[in-house]
Amino acid sequence: MTPQNGLSTAEAQSRLQKYGLNVLAGKKKESGLRAFLRQYRDFMQIILVVAALLSLVFTAELGYHFGIAGLDRFQRCVGLKQESKAEASLAALQKMMKNIVRVRRDGQVLRSKQRT
Q1: What does the pLDDT look like over 32-63, one tens digit per residue?
Q2: Helices marked H in 3-61
């Protein structure tokens, strides 16, 4: 292989068999429950949960406890909704991308939609 000649067709096929397609690995889909629980790694969410528990323990006011806990749940639902919209936008952008590749095979420049 030289930069002027590129790979031979046989070498390209051999590498394709050995390594597979030249594509980026996709991100594994996260379950809804795991995404919801991941939201609780945020420092602000931990503070809200602790505040709700402290409110329940020290004041015994169920109204404050349920208010803070409800606010926490509301924030998580809004966060999940925003993440869902962002993932949908990213998927739409990926569909719009052109996958045209220029490669050298046996000294010839080829343009292809394949990912080899």
Answers
A1: 888 888 888 888 888 888 888 888 888 888 88
A2: 9-19, 32-38, 43-54
Given a cut of 60, is residue 116 above it in pLDDT? no
What per-residue confidence (pLDDT) applies to 105?
83
Task: Round to whole Å and give the CA distance between 71 and 100.
Answer: 48
**Whole-number Å distance between alpha carbons of 76 and 40:** 8
Q: Is residue 13 part of a domain?
A: no
Overall number of domains in the chain = 1
User: What length is written for the chain?
Assistant: 116
Range of the domain at 95: 30-112
CA geometry: angle 85, 86, 90, nearest 5 deg = 115
- Give a yes or no: residue 10 inside a domain: no
- Amino acid at residue number 15: R
Q: Which residues of 39-62 are buried (b: 16+ CB within 10 A; e: fewer)?
A: eeeeeeeeebeebbeebbeeeeee
- φ, ψ of residue 100 to 5 degrees: the values are -105, 130
pLDDT at 114: 55
